[in-house]
Amino acid sequence: MSDHDIQVLESQFPAISGEAFAAAREQVLASGQSVLQAEGGFVVRVFPDGRKEVVKEIEPPTRLKSGSIYTIR
User: Fold this and answer.
1) Does pTM surpass 0.70?
2) Terminal alpha carbon distance of the chain
3) Which of 21, 22, 42, 51 could form a disulfide with 47 if both were Cys (CB 3.0 to 4.6 A apart)?
4) Contact 46, 52 (CB under 8 A)
5) Residues 53, 47: contact at Cβ < 8 Å?
6) What is the per-residue pLDDT across 22-68, written as a single tens digit (0 to 9) for each?
7) Residues 52 and 66: beta-carbon distance below 8 Å
8) Region class of 39: left (phi > 0), else alpha (psi between -120 and 50), else beta
9) What is the chain's alpha carbon radius of gyration, rounded to the nearest angstrom?
10) Where are the beta strands (DSSP E) in the chain?
11) CA of 55: how far to CAs of 6, 12, 35, 36, 46, in Å?
C-alpha cells in the first residue's frame, strides 16, 4: 500500500466513523435502550421516545487547531 493510498483512507476516516456512530446510535435506540451524548455543555441521556434527561454538566470542548501538537499530562 502506497503513502497516497494511506492518505486517501485517512481522509475518509472522519466521514465513515461518523456514519458508523450514527448507525450504532440508531440501532441502540431501535432496540429500546437509551444512549448518552454530549449536548450544550451537558451529558444527556436520550430515550427511544425522544425524551432527554440531563445526567451531568461538563466542561465545554477544547478547540484544537489542525496540525498543532498538544501534550496531555
Assistant:
1) no
2) 35
3) 51
4) yes
5) yes
6) 999 999 999 999 999 999 899 999 999 999 999 999 988 778 888 88
7) no
8) beta
9) 17
10) 35-39, 42-46, 52-57
11) 40, 33, 11, 9, 10
Contact 48, 34 (CB under 8 A): yes
Q: Which residue has the cell 440508531?
A: 26
Of residues 35, 13, 10, 12, the one with CA closest to residue 24: 35
Cell numbers at 28, concatenated = 441502540
Angle at 70 between CA 61 and CA 56, to 5 degrees: 25
Q: Identify residue 11 by its one-letter amino acid code.
A: S
Query: Can you tell me which residue has the cell 498543532?
Result: 68
Residue type, 51: R
Unique residue bearing C-alpha cell 448518552: 36
